[in-house]
């Protein structure tokens, strides 16, 4: 087969081929490259980030700015100090993952600086330029490069033309803010004055912020205002530079960190931070870190332990030291335990006086935590499985058909041989302050931090018929079967325990107290189980029927089981029962002790009442109320006991009534009694408003 | 009629019929068939008709194309390998046992201990 072709046609063909090849290389290929890089980046394919950076580098002009805009500027938040991988504080750790491309890799500060600098210099002068400048300024601030941050904002302000007046004002404001943070108050004030000389009708939001910043500067310069400062470092001495520090008010801690919270800053190169001109109130420090910074480390604080109460004029220092996570030794990596005991062992922590051992049960969408053992003095402990089986926890609900019932696996707890359990430890010093913990971020970023998996199985026992009924969601049948099994064999502690759990759930669901028959089983269980985990419901029951000798008996048993260290809630509950009986002296003693072990101060009101009742004066109560403010739970407004006591004090002085205190004492006695109708009758009759307010708050303490 | 006579007859008929026509561009035709100037030579080359064997040429093109594609492919995979070392492009976090892990690391670890358990 031959092809006949003229030379000129052959030549034309060759030219056409060459042209299309050039076209492909110059125009089509780069576009495919860009499209592929975008796709890789958005889907988080490995190397997607490098691909995208390569096409940004290779492109120029509008295309380049478009890529930077779409993948860096749009996703970044402008000069927001809340933009960190992990926000930690008050015993919580929160990783933020909100982004328009959830799978896309994130930029490092260095990468962002390189491209944002280019954008600020050469990108089109529009609204995005303003955002780019603010984001660039933030990246500089993280690196303590304040001068560069200001320069970037100023340069952008110059580049913007007349049509962008509002944006120019925003940039000037951002500069003023940086100057204010750097305590260059004069410059900050000069800029703010320039801004307020030409107030803008449209920019009311900005005008607001200008006024706020002016006030803040005034407060910061006011030495009579409170300040909180400190240094954040790791326990190996490395200072934590450029991390977020937030002084969060008790009104804000129940929600996640937002930009409008007033006290936010970054640490400098030495890890120092300072908040000046802080308004009176209760605060707790949160910090913001990158994954690389928290990986393998923890912020050792527990919930409610780190409150800072400011009343005005204090200059407090709060240093924070991140600690290494504790490594677990055994049982790990899903070890299967078949013996009668399990030995938990972990790496010892220097300076630790004791450890607490906690576990989790798996539930449908997560886990339920439980405390296995408190006050362990060495770094290992052998625990009989019977003890684990008696561990109590809250329970979650699970759908069976169209019904929600308590998750059966959760009810079985450590007695479910198919459950995968996890465990963790916390180390405390002699003062009960948390040193470090085993739970945290284990991401293998800088070094091998992942460690063994903290999971294990308990397969010593096998499921009984009743257990199987329970797991199938047939709770009532399971209860009957547990009862029958227990009657066949009175040594069957498991059936007894499960029976008691189900009876208690039935009573709670029906909102009725336990009946006498159930209490008999509960008492049998308490007599064979030496962990003390089943005693509290008995105290509750005998308290409700006012059988005081039984209350004393079981409280004594609980104290013995806990080796003298009863949980604050149970102790305060017992204290309240003592007050109800008129044994105020003893009740006050229990409440005082419970109060000391409870950082949330939820029983402070009752304790104050017992102190007022016994002393007949308000001075001690006034001091105590100041020292132990009741912490808020979510956004509930808890009573300000200090204000309430102050109110009593003023009322007692104003009334000129010698019988004021005896009337107060009588009111307290009625309130201790806890009879709703009696309290209501007293309230209706009383003429003292502050006293009424105090009694109202007191009757709600629980 | 003898062939000579026939030829003679046709020639006469042609001369008779085309007697009024004059062929003026004989020189041009001669120039094309026997080019003398460089322009004419070039034009001759330009319009020269080649006879190409289709199979060998097609085969060699196919080989060239294959080499090119393989080279491109190798370049791509080479890029992929270096990018694999990137610390955390698009990895998801998972919370397990109270710890926060990368999902892929965690799944690999669980798989690892489960294989160990079975053996």
Automatic annotation (TrEMBL), chain A:
UniProt-recorded Gene Ontology molecular function terms: carbohydrate binding; carboxypeptidase activity
Coiled-coil intervals, chain numbering: none
Stored InterPro entries: Carb-bd-like_fold (IPR013784), TPR-like_helical_dom_sf (IPR011990)
Keywords: Carboxypeptidase, Hydrolase, Protease
UniProt cross-references to Pfam families, sorted A to Z: CarboxypepD_reg
Descriptive protein name: Carboxypeptidase regulatory-like domain-containing protein
Organism expressing this protein natively: Cohnella thailandensis
Automatic annotation (TrEMBL), chain B:
Protein name: Uncharacterized protein
Taxon lineage: Bacteria, Bacillati, Bacillota, Bacilli, Bacillales
């Amino acid at each position: 087969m031959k092809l006949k072709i003229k030379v000129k046609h052959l030549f034309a063909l060759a030219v056409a081929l060459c042209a299309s090849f050039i076209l492909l290389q110059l125009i089509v290929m780069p576009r495919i490259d860009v499209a592929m890089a975008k796709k890789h980046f958005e889907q988080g394919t490995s190397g997607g980030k490098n691909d995208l950076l390569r096409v940004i580098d290779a492109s120029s002009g509008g295309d380049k700015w478009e890529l930077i805009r779409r993948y860096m500027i749009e996703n970044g938040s402008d000069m927001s100090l809340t933009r960190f991988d992990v926000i930690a504080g008050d015993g919580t750790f929160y990783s933020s993952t909100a982004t328009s491309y959830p799978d896309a890799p994130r930029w490092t500060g260095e990468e962002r600086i390189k491209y944002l600098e280019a954008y600020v210099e050469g990108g089109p002068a529009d609204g995005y330029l303003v955002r780019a400048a603010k984001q660039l300024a933030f990246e500089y601030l993280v690196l303590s490069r304040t001068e560069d941050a200001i320069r970037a904002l100023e340069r952008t302000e110059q580049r913007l033309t007349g049509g962008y007046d509002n944006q120019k004002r925003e940039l000037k404001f951002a500069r003023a803010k940086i100057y204010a943070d750097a305590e260059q108050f004069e410059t900050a004030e000069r800029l703010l004055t320039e801004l307020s000389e030409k107030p803008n009708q449209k920019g009311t939001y900005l005008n607001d912020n200008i006024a706020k910043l002016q006030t803040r500067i005034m407060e910061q310069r006011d030495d009579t205002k409170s300040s909180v400062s400190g240094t954040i470092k790791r326990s190996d001495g490395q200072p934590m530079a450029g991390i977020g520090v937030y002084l969060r008010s008790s009104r804000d801690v129940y929600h996640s960190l937002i930009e409008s919270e007033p006290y936010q800053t970054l640490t400098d190169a030495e890890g120092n931070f300072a908040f000046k001109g802080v308004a009176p109130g209760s605060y707790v420090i949160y910090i913001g870190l990158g994954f690389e910074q928290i990986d393998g480390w923890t912020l050792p604080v527990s919930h409610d332990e780190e409150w800072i109460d400011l009343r005005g004029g204090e200059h407090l220092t709060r240093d924070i030291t991140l600690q290494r996570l504790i490594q677990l030794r055994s049982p790990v990596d899903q070890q299967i335990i078949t013996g009668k005991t399990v030995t938990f062992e972990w790496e010892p922590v220097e300076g630790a006086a004791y450890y607490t051992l906690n576990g989790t049960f798996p539930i449908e969408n997560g886990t339920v935590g439980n405390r296995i053992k408190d006050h362990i003095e060495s770094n290992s402990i052998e625990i009989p499985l019977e003890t684990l089986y008696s561990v109590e926890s809250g329970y979650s609900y699970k759908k069976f058909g169209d019904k929600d019932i308590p998750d059966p696996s959760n009810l079985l707890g450590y007695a479910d041989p198919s459950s995968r359990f996890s465990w963790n430890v916390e180390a405390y010093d002699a003062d009960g302050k948390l040193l470090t913990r085993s739970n945290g971020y284990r991401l293998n970023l800088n070094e091998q931090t992942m460690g063994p998996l903290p999971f294990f199985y308990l397969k010593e026992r096998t499921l009984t018929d009743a257990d199987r009924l329970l797991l199938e969601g047939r709770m009532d049948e399971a209860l009957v079967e547990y009862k029958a099994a227990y009657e066949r064999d009175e040594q069957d502690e498991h059936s007894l325990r499960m029976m008691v759990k189900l009876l208690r759930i039935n009573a709670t669901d029906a909102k009725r107290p336990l009946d006498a028959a159930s209490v008999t089983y509960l008492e049998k269980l308490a007599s064979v189980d030496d962990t003390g985990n089943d005693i509290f419901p008995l105290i509750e029951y005998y308290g409700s029927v006012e059988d005081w000798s039984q209350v004393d008996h079981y409280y004594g048993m609980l104290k013995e089981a806990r080796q003298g260290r009863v949980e604050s809630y149970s102790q305060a509950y017992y204290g309240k029962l003592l007050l109800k009986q008129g044994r105020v002296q003893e009740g006050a003693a229990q409440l005082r002790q419970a109060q000391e072990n409870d950082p949330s101060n939820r029983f402070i009101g009752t304790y104050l009442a017992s102190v007022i009742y016994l002393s007949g004066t308000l001075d001690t109560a006034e001091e105590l109320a100041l020292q132990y403010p009741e912490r808020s739970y979510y956004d509930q407004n808890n009573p300000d006991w200090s204000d309430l006591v102050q109110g009593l004090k003023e009322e007692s002085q104003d009334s000129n009534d010698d019988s004021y205190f005896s009337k107060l004492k009588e009111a307290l006695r009625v309130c201790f009694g806890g009879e709703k109708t009696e309290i209501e009758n007293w309230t209706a009759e009383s003429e003292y408003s502050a006293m009424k307010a105090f009694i109202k708050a007191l009757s709600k303490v629980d | 009629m003898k062939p000579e006579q026939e030829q003679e007859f046709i020639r006469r008929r042609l001369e008779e019929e085309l007697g009024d026509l004059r062929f003026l561009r004989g020189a041009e035709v001669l120039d094309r068939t026997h080019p003398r100037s460089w322009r004419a030579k070039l034009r001759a080359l330009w319009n020269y008709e080649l006879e190409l064997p289709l199979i060998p040429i097609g085969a060699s093109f196919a080989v060239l194309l294959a080499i090119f594609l393989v080279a491109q492919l190798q370049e791509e995979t080479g890029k992929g390998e270096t990018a694999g070392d990137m610390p955390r492009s698009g990895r998801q976090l998972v919370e397990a046992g109270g710890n926060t892990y990368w999902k892929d690391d965690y799944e690999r670890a669980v798989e690892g201990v489960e294989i160990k358990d079975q053996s």
